[in-house]
Design goal:
The structure is a single chain. The protein is of the alpha+beta class. It has one domain (4-83). The protein contains two helices and two strands, in the order H-E-E-H. A two-stranded antiparallel sheet has the order 1-2.
Length: 90
């Protein structure tokens, strides 16, 4: 069960996520002009709205991967630290 501060943090996090989603959506729609994208030897035309959306999505996915990795690393460290203490349930 979550304590008071953790519960508030969770709600603030969801509010921030929704605000960011709305800002990115509005910004993307207002910047829907076609643009040329060049990356090394690739070159293609796309809507700026799609590029903005895909960039935001790539950032989100990268952030989730980093958070998952950090959580797994911390959980492994806590598990390793807890193994050496007698009297505690695993």
């Amino acid at each position: 069960m979550l304590r008071g501060n953790a519960r508030i943090g969770r709600h603030l996090g969801k509010g921030t996520q929704m605000t960011t989603l709305v800002v990115v959506a509005v910004f993307s729609v207002q910047n829907a002009a076609p643009v040329a994208i060049s990356f090394f030897f690739w070159r293609f035309d796309a809507s700026l709205a799609i590029i903005i959306f895909l960039s935001a999505l790539a950032g989100l996915v990268t952030g989730v991967i980093i958070m998952f990795w950090a959580h797994a690393k911390r959980a492994a460290r806590e598990k390793k630290a807890g193994q050496g203490q007698p009297g505690e349930a695993p």
